[in-house]
Design a protein that fits this description.
single chain, 5-stranded antiparallel sheet, about 140 residues, 5 strands, 1 helix, alpha+beta
């Protein structure tokens, strides 16, 4: 009887390894996507915080939020103009209140329902995510 010198893997072994890799990937992908979405949310919060500070400085100078409802009226550029921006930003201001809204760009692969908003009314702030209040305070 001759001895066969086999090198390599059988087709069955390769299929089993491929199935194991597919199962592991299917378990890891949702967590990865959640982490990416949380990173984008953090980006929006950071930008909203920066814009809020600029609006408060603008109000200190003008004593009126209505003059602070456009990005060109204060010292911060619109974060939506940055390359690769994942949100568009809007400001709505009245005499004593303002709201900053960050809406997810559908072109960036996200749902536009994932918006975040900061409302400021006479020193009290309210933070909402997709219309639900998640924080309120001074």
């Amino acid at each position: 009887m001759q001895k066969r010198n086999r090198k390599g893997f059988t087709l069955l072994e390769i299929i089993i390894v491929a199935i194991i890799i597919a199962v592991l990937a299917s378990l890891a992908l949702p967590r990865f996507l959640t982490t990416v979405q949380n990173t984008y949310q953090s980006e929006a919060w950071q930008n909203i915080s920066t814009v809020r500070g600029a609006i408060l400085r603008c109000n200190t100078i003008n004593n009126n939020y209505t003059l602070c409802d456009q990005f060109q009226n204060f010292d911060v550029s619109n974060p939506a103009n940055d390359a690769g921006a994942h949100f568009t930003y809007g400001i709505l201001a009245t005499q004593n209140t303002f709201a900053i809204t960050a809406t997810r760009n559908s072109l960036a692969g996200g749902s536009t329902a994932n918006s975040v908003k900061l409302l400021q009314n006479d020193g009290t702030s309210v933070i909402q995510r997709s219309g639900t209040t998640i924080w309120s305070g001074v």
